[in-house]
Amino acid sequence: MRYSALRILKEGLTGNKGWKPVWREPQPKAAYDYIIVGGGGHGLATAYYLAKEYKQANIAVLEKGWIGGGNVGRNTTIVRSNYILPENNPFYEMSMKLWENLEQDFNYNAMMSQRGILNLFHSDSQRDAAARRGNAMILTDSDAELLDREGVRKLCPFLDFENERFPITGGLYHPRGGTARHDAVAWGFARGADMRGVDIIQNCEVTGFQIENGVCTGVETSKGNIKAKKVGVCVAGSSSRVMATAGMRLPIETHVLQAFVTEGLKPVIPGVVTFGAGHLYISQSDKGGLVFGGDIDKYNTYAQRGNLPVIEHVAEDIMAMMPMLGRARLLRSWGGVMDMSMDGSPFIDKTHIEGLYFNGGWCYGGFKATPASGICYAHLMAKDEPHPNAAAFRLDRFRHGNIIDEKGVGPQPNMH
Ligand SMILES: Cc1cc2nc3c(=O)[nH]c(=O)nc-3n(C[C@H](O)[C@H](O)[C@H](O)COP(=O)(O)OP(=O)(O)OC[C@H]3O[C@@H](n4cnc5c(N)ncnc54)[C@H](O)[C@@H]3O)c2cc1C
């Protein structure tokens, strides 16, 4: 069923009785051509583009929980194309262009809102780094404006410009960046994939792989064994656990990242603002809640809940940047498990096991990558060769010294 203004009118006039479930609830078949393990944003996008762009059929997505229950429905919804390294810019700019047309493409309202991202800086050296990043963005088709203090004041007059300890000296503004409603992105991809015949099977945990003579021929699941010609794993924070069942050890650690939301307030923050003297990113949802987050909790865990020190940290950053929010009440907080790689960059690659592919290592920036990751992973699985914009995201890059360290902090997953 296509959604349109006419359809809304028709349903409104006929008691809203014609709406269909957004996707079917099929039973798994005995065999598929493609199995995608993990029904998060990346897995669903992969299935969607496999069917839509690469004209493949007989595809299943196996999800151990429910659609939208993983990080795709837990993130702080920020999408941006503001990378500096040549391995990253074309990929994230491709993703941004896909975001810009995504709702028309999958015919679903994902509330994509290019409300701008402002990265504050507080010193001359930070200004130099921001100028360098901005130049790299402009050179690779993205957009950036270097603002001085007055430029920032015009955009966000509510920031604390009197803070002596962390004086705001300017900001790097990325007008095309913004937010998209995270769970709607999952639902949109799920619906688009289902409409093209993809079986989305929830409550189906993959517990192992069937590997014969170095070739993956299927998966073992909580709903029985399923044969497949090609299996693509896409399970974010569970990557190390799932790939261990195929005998693989990954350059990935799992950490928890928390997010927070306040009670609903009248419009106060126009776009996304990040603090340059700590780690805080904050925006306002359409419902009025301030949505924010900071660093990971910095210890390894698979638990989807975090601890108090991070709450203290982000609250302190908010008070340094916007003391007026000191009286806002925190409504909810939650955590998601992050697949932190050694250099902070992802993997979209074949494995040494024929027919088994791996997508992961998105750290805590994978939401914005969802469409490009889906299309590049679909390309790899359909054609057995990497998409040109994701060719650097290889599993063996550490062996060859081709690390992609966007932050420049070295081989420490918890620092990326
Ligand atoms: C609090 C928080 C804030 C974030 N903020 C941002 C942000 O603002 N911008 C941004 O770009 N990124 C952000 N991220 C990161 C982003 O959400 C993730 O990188 C991205 O969602 C990961 O890809 P995914 O959507 O496929 O993951 P998920 O949605 O986690 O999908 C993986 C799926 O695999 C399933 N699975 C696991 N094991 C199995 C199994 N054995 N069998 C079957 N299924 C299995 C899981 O249940 C899960 O549904 C944030 C993350 C968190 C947690």
Measure the end-to-end span. Answer: 42 Å
Global Rg = 22 Å
Proportion of helical residues: 25-40%
- Shape assignment: globular
Strand-residue proportion: 25-35%
The average pLDDT value, as a whole number, equals 97
Question: Can you summarize the main beta sheet?
Answer: 8 strands, mixed
Number of strands: 18
The arrangement of helices and strands along the chain is HEHEEHEHEHEEHEEEEHEEEEHEEEH
Ligands in the model, by name, code or SMILES, are: flavin-adenine dinucleotide
Which structural class best describes the helix and strand composition?
alpha/beta
What kind of oligomer do you see? single chain
Helix tally equals: 9
Low-confidence stretches: none
